[in-house]
Amino acid sequence: MASEALFKKTKASTSTSRIAPSGSDTLRAARPRMLDAKREAYGLASHFLTRRGYNILEQGWRYAGGSVDLVALDGDCLVLADVLMGDGVRGAGFPHEPDVGASRERMEAAAVAYLREAQEAFSGLVRFDVVSILPLSEDRAFVRHHIGAFSGA
């Protein structure tokens, strides 16, 4: 991990919910809260990276093979990042990072798709990061930024 930081969240309110069996009323009610939590995680990660000089290009970028949470530029380096949100309310700690091999393959496929769709030619480096967020309270979160998360795979 290259950097860790503590900062105030720009948006308040996080809700946690138990996932119910598919098709239930509880799941339908929980789905908007889960989408809000994901959007909030994207926003927090974007804020964190922007404060460190990154230029955020996309949030929740989708392509035929899947999606990437954040696409950014760090100088001349294209960064594709997974954003993970932990459950700090229950004391569970940071979320576990996904399997490195499978994640690297997925991110490489996403990078190829992104570069194919890019309007301008890109000749810089491509890097894959993971931004993990652990809420501490309604207005604070601890962020772990794993730069080059899949480099050792």
Describe what this molecule looks like in 3D.
The chain is α+β, with helices and mostly antiparallel strands and 153 residues long. The chain has helices at 25-51, 100-117; strands spanning 3-8, 55-63, 66-74, 77-85, 126-137, 140-146. The longest helix is centred in the first third of the chain and has 27 residues, at 25-51. A 6-stranded mixed β-sheet has the order 1-6-5-4-3-2, sandwiched between helices. The chain is built from 2 helices and 6 strands.
Poorly predicted residue ranges: 1-32
Strands, count = 6
Report helical residue fraction: 25-40%
Main β sheet profile? 6 strands, mixed
Structural class, from secondary structure content?
Answer: alpha+beta
* CATH level 3 topology: Trna Endonuclease, Chain: A, domain 1
Radius of gyration: 16 Å
Shape: globular
Question: What would the average pLDDT be, to the nearest integer?
Answer: 75
Number of helices: 2
